[in-house]
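The methods section describes the discrete structure representation at length, but only in general terms. What matters is that the chain and its backbone geometry are given together, residue for residue. For illustration, here is how one protein appears when written out as sequence plus structure tokens:
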Amino acid sequence: MQPVTHRHVVRSGIGLLVSVFILMTVACSGSATTSGGSSGGSSGGSTGGSTGGSTAAVSTNTPTVPPTAKPKPTSMPTFDLAECQKLLTLSEVNQIAQPVNEATTIIPTNGDRGGACNYNYGPTSIDVYIYFQPYQAGVSLASIVQQGTQNVIPQAQITTSESVSGVGDQAYFLAGTDASISGQTRDLYVVYGSLVFSVNNQPLRGASQLKLTSDEAIKNAFIQLAQSVVNGL
């Protein structure tokens, strides 16, 4: 609003009255606005602050319940087709182990001390087999591996022999050859609970060769197969 000058004073009396009336109207309007803003701000701020401060926050988070650990096996399963399929499927064997001749049949067997799931591409032609036996706590897994190797390839030249982590309670991988009988063995031994099982591919016993050629590649494939078995036990 501009200050009053001589040019405003010389206006007619009616013009002056009109100007004064407009100024008074604007002033009253501004006063009302200020009053309303102050009242609304004070009331809203005080009420909102007081109410918000005294109201407790309500949590909507549901407490996390830790998953129950699956018990480890304490006895030898009875091996039938359903049990073997639960542990390892034909699809898993063919995709992970990559046998030259794909497995088409699962043949379960049971013995006095253990059992096996054989993944065959023919009636007696094995790609991969999983053999189970009881495990006595405290027995060295290395000694079990050594005994198994002597039973299969007595004069084996070992190409890989090492402990493996990440599957079961403990695990050991072994690969070897025996030139005298053109034999090979690839074995992953796994202790889990009261069982020890081995994942095997042994061409000297009629098993198919695998498309995987290096010991490292076969070891990694067998670890995957063994993990599936552990999950199914």
